[in-house]
């Protein structure tokens, strides 16, 4: 699994892989260069300071002395330059990979099915796009670099030590397995903590996000205190898990630190003995001593590296889940484009539907035909399956049984994008973007003219209230702009659905919040559209349904009555009761 995560990361560095390898070489180089100063120092000490001929050497080889000092300065400058450029490379590559993955994920999310959004919570998705992605970037920019750095420094120093005095080097090397053992145990304990921490972070973000979106409900119920408490609990759990995760390292830290701190002591004792026995020169001892940190520090870093690696492991699993998530509803092989406009004939043939996560179907054996240009009204009590039914037409969900045809062709044989572009949908929950009213109406077709926007607003009986606003069509709505009433939002959403001149118009309770007078205007507008379209209108009011070519009454997911207003009245069933209730007349 780990290998595939790294491979995934590598794939996402496309275009920057060469640069990244250069960066890794840079890291190797500047760490090997760390050895040059102690090396030159060793030469200076042995030749000019403590060696037998130190005094005479200083006289005769003066230019070598200055040469060595100049080399030291130049090498240091060179090393700093390499470090600087190297940092830039890591930053550039990691940001490029992050950019690529983020865009890819966003694209992926846009293409997911509706079912996807009922499984993943917004806060969790946001965490994947932010915190988790940052952990992935950190892997490229810091973890890999620190591993290479530690490895390069440790190996180069060890090799150098072996060349100077293999016995002393071997004793130093013997400490390594102890560190590896400790780090292995640490990894086993810290890995589950990082997974838990990641979950807690997502829960915290979800709590914050839901609360911010739902602030009106909170205020209405005066539940601020309760919400603060709820958040505080998530926050404290996150904080607690964070501390626990850090404390895992603290359990191992003393052992690693002891081993690391033992290195100078070993050098002092064993190196001192070697020095006394003339098995080590003073310069060599100075080089050992000057580089002992290069052995100890990588050991110390291992804990941190492992911690960050586990953070990456937990986060990348979440990111990759999204990265590889495939929508279930896709274009079938051989699916065709839509040439010109659809006529808009819709046929449901024995359609049944069950939500994947539900036990029982919500729609049973639905069959009806809407001829091109007709108006179909769907009526039924709440929860009977009206929204579920219309969601099948743009293929937001697939029927579990039966087929749906548009213009005589199974909808599965159309490409999804052109199919959806032919359908204008005003959903039950209206969502407007933080944009101008004009921008919202023109959402589906940014190229329509201002006059057209106005025309569609007129059809939707929205022109009046929009033109009364101080900035008219340029008024910003949504989060940042002025608020709109429920009925006003519905009318803008209707204008938005009309603005794409769809072949099929679906209105899900779109006039539920407008008054009767306005509704009449809207009905009038819909009857006189300047393009042909089949309308499927979910409505509770008889005033909306009575002019429909076909009224479907849906009860518990079944069509129990179907016909025109007059036909259904004469049936004296559900529809008849609704009409009596709404008109207040005893007998019709
Ligand atoms: P409404 O809008 O209140 O008048 O009700 P309808 O007729 O539009 O009802 P609908 O189609 O939203 O829901 C029918 C049933 O399906 C209801 O029992 C709730 C359930 N349902 C709706 N959406 C989902 C979903 O995404 N997943 C699952 N598992 N069930 C759902
Ligand atoms: Mg509904």
Report on this model:
It is a single chain. With 588 residues, the chain is of the alpha/beta class. The chain has three domains: 5-323, ABC transporter type 1, transmembrane domain (ABC transporter transmembrane region fold, Up-down Bundle); 334-422 and 534-588, P-loop containing nucleotide triphosphate hydrolases (Rossmann fold, 3-Layer(aba) Sandwich); 423-501, P-loop containing nucleotide triphosphate hydrolases (Rossmann fold). The protein is built from 22 helices and ten strands. The strands form two sheets. Strands 6-7-8-3-9-10 form a six-stranded mixed sheet. The protein has a four-stranded antiparallel sheet with strand order 2-1-4-5, with no helix packed on it. β7 (504-508), α19 (516-527) and β8 form a beta-alpha-beta unit. α7 runs antiparallel to α8 and α7 runs antiparallel to α9 (176-213). The protein starts with a helix and ends in a 5-residue tail after the last helix. The mean pLDDT is 91. Magnesium ion (MG) is lined by residues 386-387, 428, 508.
List the helices and strands and how they pair.
Layout: H1 2-11, H2 17-32, H3 36-49, H4 54-60, H5 62-110, H6 114-119, H7 122-164, H8 166-173, H9 176-213, H10 215-220, H11 224-276, H12 282-323, E1 346-353, E2 363-370, E3 375-379, H13 386-391, E4 401-406, E5 409-410, H14 416-421, E6 423-426, H15 437-441, H16 450-459, H17 463-468, H18 486-498, E7 504-508, H19 516-527, E8 534-538, H20 542-545, E9 550-555, E10 558-563, H21 565-571, H22 574-583
Parallel strand pairs: 3-8, 3-9, 6-7, 7-8
Antiparallel strand pairs: 1-2, 1-4, 4-5, 9-10
Helix pairs in contact: 2-5, 2-7, 3-4, 3-5, 3-12, 5-7, 7-8, 7-9, 7-12, 9-11, 9-12, 11-12, 16-18
Bound molecules: 2'-deoxyguanosine-5'-triphosphate (DGT) and magnesium ion.
Residues 386-387, 428, 508 line the site of magnesium ion.
């Amino acid at each position: 699994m780990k290998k595939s995560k790294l491979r995934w990361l590598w794939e996402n560095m496309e275009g920057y892989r060469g640069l990244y390898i250069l960066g890794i070489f840079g890291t190797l180089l500047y760490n090997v260069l760390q050895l040059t100063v102690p090396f030159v120092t060793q030469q200076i000490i042995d030749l000019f300071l403590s060696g037998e001929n130190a005094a005479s050497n200083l006289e005769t080889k003066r230019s070598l002395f200055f040469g060595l000092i100049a080399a030291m300065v130049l090498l240091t400058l060179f090393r700093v330059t390499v470090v600087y450029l190297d940092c830039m490379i890591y930053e550039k590559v990691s940001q490029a990979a992050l950019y690529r993955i983020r865009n890819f994920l966003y694209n992926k999310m846009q293409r997911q099915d509706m079912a996807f959004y009922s499984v993943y919570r917004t806060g969790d998705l946001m965490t994947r796009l932010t915190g988790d992605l940052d952990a992935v970037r950190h892997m490229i920019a810091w973890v890999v670099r620190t591993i290479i750095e530690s490895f390069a420094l440790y190996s180069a120093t060890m090799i150098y030590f072996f060349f100077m005095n293999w016995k002393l080097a071997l004793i130093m090397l013997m400490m390594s397995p102890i560190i590896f053992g400790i780090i292995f145990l640490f990894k086993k304990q810290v890995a589950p903590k990082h997974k838990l921490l990641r979950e807690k972070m997502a829960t915290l973000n979800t709590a914050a996000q839901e609360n911010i979106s739902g602030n009106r409900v909170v205020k209405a119920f005066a539940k601020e205190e309760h919400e603060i408490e709820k958040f505080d609990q998530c926050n404290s759990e996150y904080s607690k898990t964070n501390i626990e995760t850090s404390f895992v390292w603290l359990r191992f830290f003393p052992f690693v630190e002891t081993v690391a701190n033992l290195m100078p002591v070993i050098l002092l004792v064993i190196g001192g003995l070697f020095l006394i026995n003339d098995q080590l020169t003073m310069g060599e001892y100075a080089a050992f001593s000057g580089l002992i940190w290069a052995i100890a520090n990588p050991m110390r870093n291992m804990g941190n590296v492992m911690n960050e690696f586990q953070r990456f492991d937990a986060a990348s699993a979440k990111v990759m889940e999204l990265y590889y998530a495939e929508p279930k509803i896709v274009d079938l092989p051989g699916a065709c484009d839509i040439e010109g406009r659809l006529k808009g004939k819709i046929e449901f043939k024995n359609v049944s539907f069950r939500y994947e996560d539900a036990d029982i179907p919500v729609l049973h054996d639905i069959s009806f035909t809407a001829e091109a240009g007709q108006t179909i009204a769907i009526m039924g009590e709440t929860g009977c399956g009206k929204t579920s039914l219309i969601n099948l037409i743009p293929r937001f969900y697939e029927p579990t049984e039966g087929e749906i045809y548009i213009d005589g062709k199974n909808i599965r044989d159309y490409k999804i994008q052109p199919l959806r572009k032919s359908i204008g949908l005003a959903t039950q929950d209206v969502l407007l973007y933080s944009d101008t009213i004009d921008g919202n109406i023109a959402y589906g077709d940014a190229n329509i003219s201002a006059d057209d926007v106005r025309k569609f607003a007129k059809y939707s009986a929205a022109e009046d209230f929009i033109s009364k606003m101080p900035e008219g069509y340029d008024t910003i709505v949504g989060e940042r702009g002025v608020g709109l009433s429920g009925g006003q939002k519905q009318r803008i959403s209707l204008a938005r659905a009309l603005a794409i001149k769809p072949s099929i118009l679906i209105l899900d309770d779109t006039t539920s919040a407008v008054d009767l007078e306005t509704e009449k205007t809207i009905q009038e507008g819909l009857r006189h559209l300047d393009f042909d379209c089949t309308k499927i209108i979910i409505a509770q009011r008889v005033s909306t349904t009575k002019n429909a070519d076909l009224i479907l009454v849906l009860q518990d997911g079944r069509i129990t009555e179907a016909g025109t207003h007059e036909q259904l009245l004469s049936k004296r069933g559900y529809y008849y009761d609704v009409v009596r209730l709404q008109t207040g007349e005893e007998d019709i």
